[in-house]
Amino acid sequence: MAQTDSIETILKEKRTFAPPETFSKQAHLNNLEEYEILWEQSQKDPVSFWEKAADEIHWFKRWDKPFVWNEPHAQWFVGAKTNAAYNCLDRHLKNGRGNKLALIWEGEDGQIVQWTYQELHQRVCRLANGLESKLQLKAGDTAAIYMPLVPEAVVVMLACARIGVVHSVIFAGFSSPSVRDRVLDAECKAVFTSDIGYRRGQVLELKKTIDEAVAGLSCVKHTVVLQRRSKTKMVGRDVDYDDLCENQPSSHAAKELDAEHPLYFLYTSGTTGKPKGIVHTTGGYLVGVTKTAKLIFDLKDKDVFWCTADIGWVTGHSYVVYGILSNGMTSVIYEGALNYPHPGRIWEIIDRHQVSIIYTAPTAIRSFMRSGDEHPQKYKLDSLRLLGTVGEPINPEAWMWYYNLVGKGRCPIVDTWWQTETGSILISPLPGVTALKPGSATRPFFGIVAEVVNEKGQACAPNEGGYLVIKHPWPAMLRTIHRDPDRFKQQYWSRFKGMYFTGDGAHMDENGYFWIKGRIDDVINVSGHRLGTMEIESALVSHPSVAEAAVVGRPDTLKGQGIVAFVIPRETAGTDGIEELGNVLKSHVVKEIGSLARPDEILFTKALPKTRSGKIMRRLLKDIAAGKEVSGDTTTLENPGLLDIIKPN
Ligand code: PRX
Asked: Whose CA is nearest to atom 12 of ligand 1?
């Protein structure tokens, strides 16, 4: 099924699913009337809603002002002092949750590690002490984390947060040039890594990648290495993770940080130029993720929560680590592929750890569907009570499959819309009150003023397609792009006056439900991850055999979107062995960016369709990539005949 089909199906989707009674009865929010009143109030006065939400976390000092807006610069809880790690750990020790499991980790080989809040706290304190005393790291310094999904990666994040070091987690699938760019942009003083990681039975040599990435970078003073395979002698700026923690006190006074102190940078793709270092702060972010996690996932003390995202993505930051631990929940993490070594691995893990809430991506659900109903059917899955999705629009077929085969019709699905930039979920059902429509993220969360507008920034009529915008700042929103405030303003706050521009197309139906259609810019969403076409193009043209390249997305039944590259080879490349060149270029992109950016197809051409002003007409390329008739207006094409030249080799 092509994506265009799925969008049409979504448009026709009329089914609704009321919250199951058994679920509603026990939910934090279960009275529709009360919900509507609270929601209306929060739309009129978002600041009061968030101020009340802020009372649910710990502050060393309360704020002087809840919100200061100097467009496009927002500040939340101004003058307040808090600490993210304190809220995720110490608070729970004080509330008697010390012996509760904070993390359940499973390795691909079946190894299991379980840490209570007390144990996690001690480990974080030891590392925080080591970072301060041995590496002289201090508040405001930056550190990169390039680690597999192991519990120590969470320790590193929280130890940084505890002392005010801004962390930048870089997904461990990125290759060394991508890591280097990010480390350099953030001027990281320390880099945390691991000798190896595991994926699909293979060993990933992470330390080797890091060594290449930071070679010659003078900003990096220390590379901290978690040695999993065997202990080797550390040389140069390398420091052994265990040595760093050894003999350090197991208590540590969390630094009292300004609410607006940056908690982390997270690099994400844009349409043009290098990845953007999205800046998130401490206080507002924590309020946003804590409140959304609690209400959207209806978190209860006995829940075992599993978000399958890697900590290299924002979903991992907000709903594996910060929002889940700040609510004192048990967070499951799994290092490995969800369908390895057998297609039912995900269901096996759910049964083994009695997971009650699972949060995953539509692309994963589609791959489970494809491998067959018999796999989830082999497992009980009776511990589950709520299902979630994130990352891309979910097609109704996948939604129904998830609902029936995984949730057995008794678990609501929360389809959560948000972005790296938004920090927390902005549009989502509240599972105890919202009637669900498959394929719709339903309504904005409390305090989130969302709208679909036309080119002029005016509200669209119900069911009329337009641009998704947010009309009032919210606490967890990005504050800027690191070292590029102009780009921040230009990208998010210039399209429509006074509104945050999401870059997504959407429509709202007659019930006020939002249906998100995906990106309207040249960003491809592959398996729920954003990739800038520009980055892949730069990687391609950096190869000596490539003169020009244009990259577009095409519908892909499994991944949401696949990557198609149109490449003009250099004269010197010749036409012999062009097929081989295709494979060489695919590997080249993997080497430059990482395997997530590997083009699915490379089409060689002698020219690219351009407008008279020299802009590549991507719309035409998208049609060709999707195997469709080229449609629409081609009158602005410099040379309409050019299209004939674009043919697969
Ligand atoms: O296009 C939207 C899509 O993913 C984009 C954000 O990507 P990223 O910053 O990588 O964050 C992904 C995880 C939060 C959005 O602009 N997207 C995300 N969630 C949904 C979605 N599209 C439709 N429905 C969703 N639930």
From this structure: 391
